[in-house]
Write a structure and sequence with these properties.
Blueprint: H1 2-22, H2 25-42, H3 50-53, E1 60-66, E2 76-77, H4 78-81, E3 89-94, E4 100-102, E5 109-110, E6 115-121, H5 122-130, H6 135-155, H7 157-169
Antiparallel strand pairs: 1-6, 2-5, 3-4, 3-6
Helix pairs in contact: 6-7
Protein backbone atom coordinates (compact mmCIF):
# COMPACT_ATOMS: atom_id res chain seq x y z
CA UNK A 1 0.00 0.00 0.00
CA UNK A 2 2.84 2.43 0.78
CA UNK A 3 4.23 1.79 -2.70
CA UNK A 4 0.92 2.96 -4.19
CA UNK A 5 1.01 6.17 -2.11
CA UNK A 6 4.61 6.80 -3.15
CA UNK A 7 3.66 6.42 -6.82
CA UNK A 8 0.65 8.72 -6.44
CA UNK A 9 2.78 11.30 -4.65
CA UNK A 10 5.44 11.08 -7.35
CA UNK A 11 2.76 11.43 -10.06
CA UNK A 12 1.23 14.48 -8.34
CA UNK A 13 4.65 16.11 -7.87
CA UNK A 14 5.58 15.47 -11.51
CA UNK A 15 2.26 16.90 -12.68
CA UNK A 16 2.76 20.02 -10.57
CA UNK A 17 6.29 20.45 -11.95
CA UNK A 18 5.03 20.11 -15.54
CA UNK A 19 2.25 22.62 -14.85
CA UNK A 20 4.77 25.07 -13.40
CA UNK A 21 7.15 24.66 -16.33
CA UNK A 22 4.34 25.00 -18.90
CA UNK A 23 3.33 28.38 -17.43
CA UNK A 24 6.84 29.71 -16.77
CA UNK A 25 7.66 32.94 -18.64
CA UNK A 26 11.28 32.50 -17.56
CA UNK A 27 11.47 29.11 -19.29
CA UNK A 28 9.64 30.52 -22.32
CA UNK A 29 12.25 33.29 -22.69
CA UNK A 30 15.11 30.77 -22.46
CA UNK A 31 13.41 28.49 -24.99
CA UNK A 32 12.79 31.47 -27.34
CA UNK A 33 16.44 32.53 -27.16
CA UNK A 34 17.69 28.99 -27.72
CA UNK A 35 15.33 28.43 -30.64
CA UNK A 36 16.21 31.79 -32.20
CA UNK A 37 19.91 31.08 -31.87
CA UNK A 38 19.51 27.63 -33.44
CA UNK A 39 17.45 28.97 -36.36
CA UNK A 40 19.94 31.76 -37.03
CA UNK A 41 22.88 29.36 -36.88
CA UNK A 42 21.46 26.46 -38.92
CA UNK A 43 18.24 27.66 -40.50
CA UNK A 44 17.27 29.93 -43.34
CA UNK A 45 14.31 31.52 -41.56
CA UNK A 46 14.34 35.03 -40.17
CA UNK A 47 13.21 34.84 -36.57
CA UNK A 48 10.55 37.36 -35.53
CA UNK A 49 8.56 37.75 -32.35
CA UNK A 50 5.24 38.67 -33.97
CA UNK A 51 3.51 39.21 -30.64
CA UNK A 52 5.83 42.11 -29.88
CA UNK A 53 6.21 43.22 -33.51
CA UNK A 54 2.44 43.65 -33.96
CA UNK A 55 1.79 44.85 -30.38
CA UNK A 56 -0.68 42.00 -29.95
CA UNK A 57 -0.65 42.46 -26.19
CA UNK A 58 -2.03 46.02 -26.42
CA UNK A 59 -5.55 45.16 -27.59
CA UNK A 60 -4.25 44.53 -31.11
CA UNK A 61 -4.69 41.09 -32.53
CA UNK A 62 -4.74 38.95 -35.63
CA UNK A 63 -7.94 37.00 -36.20
CA UNK A 64 -9.89 35.05 -38.78
CA UNK A 65 -13.36 36.22 -39.70
CA UNK A 66 -15.83 34.15 -41.75
CA UNK A 67 -17.93 36.26 -44.16
CA UNK A 68 -21.63 35.35 -44.39
CA UNK A 69 -24.25 36.31 -47.00
CA UNK A 70 -25.83 39.08 -44.90
CA UNK A 71 -22.53 40.57 -43.62
CA UNK A 72 -21.57 44.15 -44.40
CA UNK A 73 -18.34 42.84 -45.93
CA UNK A 74 -19.97 40.42 -48.39
CA UNK A 75 -19.80 40.99 -52.15
CA UNK A 76 -17.80 44.23 -51.93
CA UNK A 77 -14.33 45.30 -53.06
CA UNK A 78 -11.72 46.10 -50.42
CA UNK A 79 -11.29 49.61 -51.84
CA UNK A 80 -15.02 50.25 -51.25
CA UNK A 81 -14.93 48.86 -47.69
CA UNK A 82 -12.16 51.25 -46.62
CA UNK A 83 -11.25 49.03 -43.66
CA UNK A 84 -7.89 50.77 -43.16
CA UNK A 85 -9.84 53.90 -42.15
CA UNK A 86 -11.23 51.80 -39.29
CA UNK A 87 -7.73 50.65 -38.33
CA UNK A 88 -8.25 47.16 -39.79
CA UNK A 89 -5.85 45.58 -42.27
CA UNK A 90 -6.69 42.56 -44.43
CA UNK A 91 -3.65 40.28 -44.39
CA UNK A 92 -5.17 37.52 -46.49
CA UNK A 93 -8.32 35.86 -47.79
CA UNK A 94 -8.98 32.15 -47.89
CA UNK A 95 -11.62 31.43 -50.52
CA UNK A 96 -14.36 28.79 -50.29
CA UNK A 97 -12.46 26.65 -52.80
CA UNK A 98 -9.38 26.64 -50.54
CA UNK A 99 -7.31 29.10 -52.59
CA UNK A 100 -5.53 31.87 -50.70
CA UNK A 101 -5.00 35.53 -51.61
CA UNK A 102 -2.13 36.95 -49.56
CA UNK A 103 -1.90 40.72 -49.07
CA UNK A 104 -4.99 41.41 -51.20
CA UNK A 105 -5.22 44.69 -53.10
CA UNK A 106 -8.07 47.20 -53.31
CA UNK A 107 -9.85 45.65 -56.31
CA UNK A 108 -10.09 42.27 -54.56
CA UNK A 109 -13.71 41.34 -53.89
CA UNK A 110 -14.75 39.86 -50.54
CA UNK A 111 -17.30 37.11 -51.08
CA UNK A 112 -19.65 35.23 -48.79
CA UNK A 113 -17.86 32.10 -47.57
CA UNK A 114 -14.44 33.79 -47.51
CA UNK A 115 -12.31 33.55 -44.39
CA UNK A 116 -10.48 36.85 -43.84
CA UNK A 117 -7.24 37.14 -41.89
CA UNK A 118 -7.37 40.56 -40.22
CA UNK A 119 -5.14 42.71 -38.02
CA UNK A 120 -6.46 45.52 -35.84
CA UNK A 121 -7.81 46.56 -32.46
CA UNK A 122 -9.89 43.87 -30.79
CA UNK A 123 -13.00 46.06 -30.44
CA UNK A 124 -12.84 47.09 -34.13
CA UNK A 125 -12.56 43.45 -35.21
CA UNK A 126 -15.47 42.41 -32.97
CA UNK A 127 -17.64 45.21 -34.37
CA UNK A 128 -16.75 44.20 -37.93
CA UNK A 129 -17.65 40.58 -37.18
CA UNK A 130 -21.13 41.58 -35.99
CA UNK A 131 -21.83 44.21 -38.69
CA UNK A 132 -24.74 43.44 -40.98
CA UNK A 133 -25.30 44.68 -44.54
CA UNK A 134 -27.40 47.76 -45.19
CA UNK A 135 -27.75 51.30 -43.89
CA UNK A 136 -27.13 50.28 -40.27
CA UNK A 137 -23.88 48.59 -41.27
CA UNK A 138 -22.84 51.73 -43.16
CA UNK A 139 -23.56 53.83 -40.07
CA UNK A 140 -21.43 51.48 -37.94
CA UNK A 141 -18.63 51.93 -40.49
CA UNK A 142 -18.81 55.75 -40.17
CA UNK A 143 -18.74 55.47 -36.37
CA UNK A 144 -15.75 53.08 -36.52
CA UNK A 145 -13.86 55.46 -38.85
CA UNK A 146 -14.53 58.36 -36.47
CA UNK A 147 -13.36 56.30 -33.49
CA UNK A 148 -10.16 55.33 -35.31
CA UNK A 149 -9.51 58.96 -36.26
CA UNK A 150 -9.93 59.96 -32.59
CA UNK A 151 -7.38 57.31 -31.61
CA UNK A 152 -4.93 58.54 -34.26
CA UNK A 153 -5.45 62.16 -33.14
CA UNK A 154 -4.72 61.17 -29.53
CA UNK A 155 -1.50 59.42 -30.55
CA UNK A 156 -0.38 62.07 -33.05
CA UNK A 157 -1.79 65.40 -31.78
CA UNK A 158 0.70 67.45 -33.83
CA UNK A 159 -0.66 65.96 -37.08
CA UNK A 160 -4.17 66.98 -36.02
CA UNK A 161 -2.97 70.52 -35.26
CA UNK A 162 -1.33 70.78 -38.70
CA UNK A 163 -4.48 69.49 -40.43
CA UNK A 164 -6.57 72.08 -38.58
CA UNK A 165 -4.17 74.86 -39.67
CA UNK A 166 -4.25 73.68 -43.30
CA UNK A 167 -8.04 73.59 -43.24
CA UNK A 168 -8.27 77.12 -41.83
CA UNK A 169 -5.84 78.56 -44.41
CA UNK A 170 -7.45 76.70 -47.30
CA UNK A 171 -4.29 74.86 -48.35
Amino acid sequence: MSSLWARLLLLAAGSMLLLFLANSTWLERINWKAGSWALQKWGRLEVQDFTNLLHLSRNYRVCELRVHDNDWLADRRLVDLQLANEGVLVLGIERKDGSYVGAPRGQTRVEAGDQLVLYGRGDALNDLDERQAGIEGNMHHVIAVTKQQDIVDDVFPLDKHMQDEEASTGE
